């Protein structure tokens, strides 16, 4: 069925949004076939974002774990993470559709900053919904967005975090659908968003596949990526889905049982923000509150394609808790001179366990972002 990955995905939205999703789907399909659109996207990636990002051999971390480790350096993108790839792709699409008012949701502010950046680049109006709790916790990113010209609107419903900001952005879209483009930040939401976000992030996997073939003349044994909504993971996995390469997603185990954000490990199928997917919920279907030290992983749902890849077993999903993620942050910083985002630190942390069982294997880790944004958290911890 259209927009489904097995039983996951779909378009669970108010009826007034269905024509807007249809319009978006058609525009995206046309853009994919349009050579000029492709060239425009590629030129932005090269000249503005700074792509291709390197694939760095992590020599000392390899020695430490007994693996052969390569890092896909999304931390070196303009604005410091993979989110800009999707923000630029969707902004180009919004321009093609003639929409000049851009709205977005943000949790930690990373997607908000990427969206505000892309809007500044093209002179578009930018409105970012952000939970009032997150505004307090991530104030620097709020200031950044405002400097970039965005209007940051505090959301005080529910737990005043990402889930509520997303609901508010959807509400705005319903009310202003004619002139407004909703720029969703991960591979979640109703069809066509999960497919579209994967498309714009698949540049990560396409580059990494070519780079490892050039460096080693063979494919890697495994790819490891952290999973929040799942956009950096599906972006790198997409190039290897048909290959004999082990694919591993790492979810945030937070402080353990009942205090985590591991939707695939502990969730049940349910509907949130327009799609059916694994969801952290109680027995009455109420969304549970989540926790992760990595703000970008702190979300009760996951992209529907990941639910399907978990269900079919093509990708295995593992758990890393706050403590191990913090230790991995320090380890990569000391061994390689690279400070990873706390989200990416979850993927790095899993290498230890993987190395114990699979000595000598070649692994690519998607380093989804840089850790500068997390210094206050890291310094405030007990490490
Ligand atoms: C937002 C974010 C993530 C999590 O989002 P995905 O859609 O799962 O990729 C991971 N890493 C960084 C650096 C982020 O900013």
Radius of gyration: 19 Å
Tell me which ligands are bound: pyridoxal-5'-phosphate
Structural class by sheet pairing and helices = alpha/beta
Count the E strands.
14
Our estimate of the beta-strand percent is 15-25%
What does this molecule look like?
The protein is an alpha/beta fold. It is built from 15 helices and 14 strands. The protein has a 6-stranded mixed beta sheet, sandwiched between helices. Helix 4 packs across helix 5. The longest helix has 24 residues. It starts with a strand and ends with a helix. The mean pLDDT is 97. Bound molecules: pyridoxal-5'-phosphate. The site of pyridoxal-5'-phosphate (PLP) has 19 residues, from helix 10 and helix 14.
């Amino acid at each position: 069925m259209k927009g489904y990955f097995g039983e996951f995905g779909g378009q669970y939205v108010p009826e007034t949004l269905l024509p807007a999703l249809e319009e978006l789907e058609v525009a995206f399909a046309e853009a994919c076939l349009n050579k000029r659109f492709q060239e425009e996207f590629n030129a932005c990636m090269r000249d503005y974002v700074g792509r291709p990002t390197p694939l760095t051999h992590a020599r000392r971390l390899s020695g430490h774990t007994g693996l052969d480790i390569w890092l896909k350096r999304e931390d070196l993108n303009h604005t410091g993470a993979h989110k800009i790839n999707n923000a630029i792709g969707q902004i180009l699409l919004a321009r093609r559709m003639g929409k000049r008012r851009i709205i977005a949701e943000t949790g930690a502010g990373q997607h908000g900053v990427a969206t505000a950046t892309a809007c500044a680049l093209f002179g578009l109006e930018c409105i970012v919904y952000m939970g009032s709790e997150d505004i307090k916790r991530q104030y620097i990113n709020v200031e950044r967005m405002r400097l970039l010209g965005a209007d940051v609107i505090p959301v005080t419903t529910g737990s005043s975090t990402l889930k509520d900001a997303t609901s508010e952005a959807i509400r705005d879209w319903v009310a202003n659908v004619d002139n407004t483009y909703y720029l969703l930040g991960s591979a979640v939401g109703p069809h066509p968003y999960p497919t579209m976000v994967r498309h714009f992030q698949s540049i990560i996997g396409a580059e990494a596949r070519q780079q490892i073939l050039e460096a080693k003349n063979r494919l890697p044994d495994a790819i490891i990526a952290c999973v929040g909504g799942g956009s950096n993971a599906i972006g790198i996995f997409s190039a290897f889905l048909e290959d004999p390469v082990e694919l591993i997603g790492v979810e945030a185990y937070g402080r353990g049982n009942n205090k985590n954000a591991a939707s695939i490990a502990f969730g049940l199928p349910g509907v949130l923000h327009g799609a059916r997917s694994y969801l952290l919920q109680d027995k009455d279907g109420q969304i549970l509150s989540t926790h992760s030290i990595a703000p970008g992983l702190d979300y009760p749902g996951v992209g529907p394609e990941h639910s399907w890849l978990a269900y079919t077993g093509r990708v295995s999903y593992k758990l890393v808790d706050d403590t191990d993620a913090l230790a991995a942050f320090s380890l990569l910083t000391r061994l390689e001179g690279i400070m990873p985002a706390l989200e990416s630190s979850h993927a790095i942390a899993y290498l230890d366990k993987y190395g114990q069982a699979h000595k000598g294997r070649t692994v690519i880790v998607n380093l989804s972002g840089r850790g500068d944004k997390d210094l206050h958290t890291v310094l405030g911890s007990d490490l």
